[in-house]
From TrEMBL:
Family matches, as Gene3D superfamilies: 3.30.300.20
Top-level taxon of the source organism: Bacteria
Identification of the protein by name: OsmC family protein
InterPro entries linked to this entry: KH_dom-like_a/b, OsmC/Ohr_fam, OsmC/Ohrsf, OsmC_Ohr_Peroxiredoxin, Peroxiredoxin_OsmC
Source lineage: Bacteria, Bacillati, Cyanobacteriota, Cyanophyceae, Oscillatoriophycideae
Length: 145
């Protein structure tokens, strides 16, 4: 398979505190989605970069876990993953410090210990995990439904 490229863009207008930006993706799935200082740091309704990283990580990990289960002969009916991205104030700036993944698998013919071992293996092959690894602590909690 040839290398793939995915493109997104962001525009920011105004000052950091009072301004506002828009995020778009080349696919059209995100088109001028607003974000602001308040949506990022003050819990105002709306999206922010960390939420988008968490969404990407949850989606990527769910696929990696399904692939790993399939390769070991298991056919999950569903894999659901929630990712929580933590950003903290550090040294006068901000740093993404942690990603918490919580995944649940709905499948039969597997025990919890085996599922957890496979879930850990999948985290090691997840492209988003691997992009974050080394600068962000990644914690995984896996359970069967």
């Amino acid at each position: 398979m040839p290398a793939l490229q995915r493109t997104a863009s962001a525009t920011w207008n105004g000052t950091v505190k009072e301004g506002q930006g828009q995020i778009s993706a080349a696919s059209g799935v995100l088109l001028n989605i607003p974000y602001s200082f308040a949506t990022r740091f003050e819990n105002e309704q709306g999206t922010n970069p960390e939420e988008l990283i968490a969404a990407a990580h949850a989606a990527c990990y769910s696929m990696a876990l399904t692939l790993t289960l399939n390769e070991k002969g298991y056919q999950p009916q569903q894999v659901q993953t929630q990712a929580t991205c933590t950003i903290e104030s550090q040294d006068g700036g901000f740093k993404i410090t942690k990603m918490q993944l919580e995944t649940q698998g709905q499948l039969s013919g597997i025990d919890a210990e085996t599922f957890n071992r496979i879930a850990q293996e999948a985290e090691q092959i997840c492209p988003v995990s691997n992009a974050l690894r080394g600068s962000v602590a990644i914690n995984l909690k896996a359970s069967l439904q």
